[in-house]
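We modelled the chain as a single entity of 366 amino acids. Its sequence is:
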Amino acid sequence: MAFTRRTRVVLLVAVALVVIGALVIGAATVVELGSKEPVKDITTRPSAYQVTYRVVASATGTATTSWEVLTVHRPFASSDLTYQADPRREQGQTPQKATWFSTDELYTLDATDVVRAVAGRQPGPSGSDQALGVELDGLVTRGLASQRQSERVAGRSCRVYRFFEPPGGAVRKLDGDRNHDDLCIDGSGLVLSERWTLDGRLVFRRDAVEVHLGDRPDPMGTAGAQPLPGSRQAATVTKGVDPHAPISAPPAPAGFDAWGPEELTVPDPAGQGVVAQSTVWAFTRGPDVISVEAGRERGGTVPWSNQPTVTEPVHLPGLGDATTALRSDGPEIRIALPGGTWVRIRGTVPLAQLVSYARTLPAPRR
């Protein structure tokens, strides 16, 4: 579903239309010098957290400051709100922007300050959450990220990792220093700071000013979402299984509980039938989720692109030849099947663990 994984990148681009030079802001960021430690995946992830960021970007050549409050309840839900002033000091503000993910729905704030449903989505990590920590070693090994200095942000230690662009979906390969996005990731896998450089100039910076681990009230949880009227393009999610799904129900990974299954349908915006249809079996273990999605698309295409994504081949005993990709929401395994059908397996677990589970899946239906 097009809205789920690139929402953050779209929002960042919207507030960074005109590039600016180096920004000096008052957030407490301290660079710590020292040798780089070996890259290790972060597998202990909090079930819930809330981070308040101070954001500096440019519009029409003028630096602007806003405040972002990200509230996440894993494995599925989150809200990401942008305010004009610091919400810790000026309570009761109406957000300038808001994105809210439930288990299987995406909502946004419309022009009348009403939260409305945009479209259904596959049950998985919310588009505002990240699972980069579980694949740090693979990201560096594949040339998708490089490890840099450590810092202290909002009183917490974090390590800077350089990416090509703000991660949203499949992570692209590094390409020089004129375009890069530096994320400081702490020991819980949380992003504490970000500095986006575009064409050699800093265009966006955000720094955590307050971090809470554990359950926090979601500002959007009682907002009262309403369906967006008049939209024929929106994907829908219903309980059940597509009878034409190319695989049978997969077994639950060890230690995970079943959630679903659910069927995702993407209608043709011109009203000419269905563009894509898939079944998603999701399995949860605390903050973590592994999902198996099997579907078909009009014209026999697959819902992913191998360019410019860096992929590596892997063979699965039941499903056959596959490729692996690393995404902002964790690793992914992709299998194109005969007859224009496909399977993809995603998880907020290290790639080796995801591959081990994928090897247990049976062959497609005949």
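As a brief sanity check on the tokenised model: The two ends are 27 Å apart (CA to CA). The first strand starts at residue 29 and ends at 32.
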